[in-house]
Amino acid sequence: MPVGRVVQNIGGFQTILTEEGELLTCTARGRVKRARGEIVVGDLVSYVQGPQGGVIEAVEPRRNLLRRPLVANVDQAVLVFALHDPEPSLLLIDRFILGLQVVELQVLLCFNKLDLVRRQDACTLARYYESLGFTVVLTSALTHEGKRKLLSHLYGLCSVFCGPSGVGKSALINMIRPDADLITGEISPKLRRGRHTTKAARLIPLGRGGFVVDTPGYTQVDLMGLDRDALLRAFPEIAARASDCRYRSCAHLAEPECAVKEAVARGLIPTTRYNHYARFAAELAAENPWERP
Q1: Do 84 and 115 contact (CB within 8 A), yes or no?
Q2: pTM for the whole thing?
């Protein structure tokens, strides 16, 4: 039985990309829906083709599943923020990074709208996150600056573009795949944030075996399901110092002889990052009292 990948899911109909590179509209058998629940973009499905279109007979086991955005079988998250209009929020960036730890995805940070800021300011922000161990790409969907570097990180992978509305996710995908013809939007003058132009996740094939997933923008990142190990993965600079603390159970908040807090005091860990860590630790403790330090 042939296998295809779901590239779009709207109104109970799934569009799949076949192994021959063709698009086929399908519906799923009732038993498939009852057994697996909702079929999502990125799913690999077995299907048969009939006179009225395709019928999905089974859904292959998923490597991973993101709940927001709802997409399966991805290799990396491209976290897109604008350098200006709207201004980037370091707290929101770190919150997105933490939220992605649920599925332990590698994160590529993409700062867009390079044409709106001084290059020096953009490079300062990039170096800040690079010093923390993240890969960063600076782009302008308007001038196509950074296109080649961005593509070099996408080929051969299934990458989900995520981030707030108005930062240029759809515009970037249009830049690297002009025939994708995604709708783009402007910033709301009243609210100073983007209007939602992408209504549902959509998987778009790239050359060299890669895919990108355009998703609706969102700013509310749910931290449910995360624990302290996930929190440390999102803050590698804190995790690197944790083993030097006096107490193995140190949460790096109020404990004495904490190597992390000493590193913050010495300027080896940015105070902003540590404050974000402490804020998220308090949220996780409130959601999961058994995780309380």
Answers
A1: no
A2: 0.85
